[in-house]
Every structure is written in C-alpha cells, then in structure tokens.
Amino acid sequence: MKTKRISAFLTALMMCLTLLPAAARAEGDAAEVWSPDMQTRIGTYASLAEALAAANQAGMYAGVKLLQDVTVGSGTTLTLNDSINLFLNNYTLTLESGSKITKGESLNAYPAIDLWNDTSSSLPSEGTLVIGGTLEADLYIYDAAVTVSDGGSVETLDAYAGTVNISGGAVHALITDGGTYNISGGVMCLDMFDNNGYEDVAVTVSGDACLAWSEANGIQVRAPQYWCCGFHLTLEGGYFDADPSLLYRDRYWHINDGGSWTASTLSDDFTYYIKSGGTYTEIAKDAITDENLTKSSDEDGSIFVCYADVVTVDESQIEEYSGQTDWAAGNSNLYRWRIRSTSAPSLAESSVTDQTVTWRIANVPANALLIAACYDEDGTMSDVQTVDVGSDASGTLTMQGTGTEFRLMLVDKTTYAPLCRAWTNNG
Questions:
Q1: What's the pLDDT at 1?
Q2: pTM > 0.90
C-alpha cells in the first residue's frame, strides 16, 4: 500500500511539473521555440543561439519566445537560416555593438523577423528590441518598441504598430506602414512614406538624421496613397538628399486611388479638395458625395487631399548646403539639404524701409558677423556693410548705395562660412 501511495504521489508531482511554465522547469532558460503553426512548443533553450538553431530546424516562421531579458554580446554572431516569428514576451532583446544576426542558408535574400503578436496563443510581441549591432534580416514590427542606436544596422525596417526610435546606425530601407517613428539620427533610405491603410501613423524627423529618398539616388518614395487614414509627418530637423519640401509641396493625392472609400468613411482630420479644370478647390467633407469618389483622378469632380495638410514644418528653416561649418551630415555632396533645428541661428523678421534695413537674428552664435549688401537693378553691388553681432540679436543699418535689392548674410567672422540661409527682400 505504501508503494502505491508513493507511486501515486510521484505521478501527481510529474503532472504538476508539466503544467508549470518553462522558466520554472529550467531556471535561466533564455527562450522557447514553437512550431510554425504556433500550436506546439518544441522546447526550451538556455541561450538564444540554441533557440535560433532549433527554429532553423523547425521550418519557416517557427516561433521564438523570450523567457527573460537577453543580450547578444559584442563579437557574437548568430545565424538565422529562415524567417521566424519573434515573441519578445515583454522582455528586452539587446544586440550590442559588434554583434550580428546573420543570414545563413535561407532561400530568401534576407530572412524576416516578425515581431508578431499572436493573441490567440498567448505569445505577445510587446517588449523592447535594441539594435546596436548588425541585423541581416527584414524586421517587421507589431506592437513592440524598437530602438536603432549607434553601430546598429538593419536591412529593412517596417512597422505596422508599436514605436520605432532611430538615434543612430543605418536602416537600408525604412517603410512607414504604421506605428510611431522618432528619427533623430542615423542614416536611412526612405523606401516608402506610406501607411498602407493603417491608422494613426506618426513620423517625426529631427536632429542630425540623414535621409535619402529622391529618385535621383535610386530610391522612389511611393506615393502616400493612404495618408487620409491618419498619417502625419513632422519635420523638425534632419539632412536630405533633395529639397524636403518636394515631399509635399504642390502635391495632391486622389483619395480613391488606393481604396474603396465612401463619403461616410472619410476622416474629419483633413482638408479635402475638388478638382475642376486642373485646379484644386477646398470642399467641405459634408459636401462630398459617393459619386465624387467614383470619379477617376483626371475627371472634374474628383476628390483629393493635399500632402502639405499632413506635414508640419517650418519652411524658413529649409536650406541648401553652401559651405556651412556646422553641416553635420558627413557627405555634403549627397545630403545637400537640411532642416535646421529651432535652436540653430537664423535671420528672422528682417525688413527694408527706404534704405534702412532692420534685422533680427534668432539664436545668435559666437563669432557671428552680419554682412549687408545693396544691389542695383543690373546686379552690381552698390554698398556693403558689416556688423560684429556679438550678443546683439537685432538692429538697423542705413545703406548708402543705390538700388532696391538688399541681402543679409550671417557668417563665421573667422572663416566667413555661412551660418544660415541668406535673407533677401526679393524672396
């Protein structure tokens, strides 16, 4: 009888152990691997390297679920043979500078890592991925928080939800399908500024971020076909390979090009324009009919939104490279345009009355010299004066020359390099 009781106890104990989570069965396990259909847990593994090796054997889109915070140290290379679903499970995965997740024997040019949120099987993608190393994979983000920092490199980064913070490194193709993007540094190619029908997409570019997007450099930004769903672009800084205003200025999107919209489903957040004779005139949303929305883009009565309506930018801060000493982009031949941050110096609120020039400089830098010039109608300079600005942020100058064109330039008084865009009363 005693033997039977012991046997029954051990059987019950084993049944209880099978119900415990993997982390309780093997303390210190880094991750577990699931079958591609997410129905069968294949096993738990002490390291991410072992988990990826098991996922490689399990087939395309096997699942890898973190069981604790994991760091891939500098000098470490992990191999990914095929695409996987990565479930961060509310933990943090960090790729340190000098680490790498490399493409192995995959049939794909680049395998994909999907930060997928499989709510049906309790495999959450919420968590944090910090990329300071090299990720030779296409990264798709759903609900997670991803940071690309100095030293980081990603082939393709595409978010459908979640938050992406890029403060350094390189993203070779950036696609803004959804989520929130804060881009303050790094180098990237904008493959698409397009929220693909997903709502509440916000992109903010600031700081010294370098963005290549123009067709001249082999990159075509796809027309933002779904911007009326809830896309917003804020340009507070950054360096560009073309005038960034070309992204939105004098551009309109025919709102039925990419979807079957009806008047009742249009967003209240945007201004709408009706096309007639090649011109665009604002129209109230309530005045738009379903018939308007059936018209092709070249028909009168078709409805458009203006790209500029979803962009926030101070165009007075857009400037082209002309030798500025504070040009932070390493390749000024490629990144020839920038949006100066609000803390950068600028000539603001300047004006001319008769021959008197009134000027004001925002954010006066040290060693600044103001040069004022007056030009005759034939372009001949008739007078030039200089002011050692010092701490003075405003003042007046009475020009002695003739002519009606006046120009103001703020330069470094040692090198004479321009410090900001020149001002002219002729625009």
A1: 41
A2: no
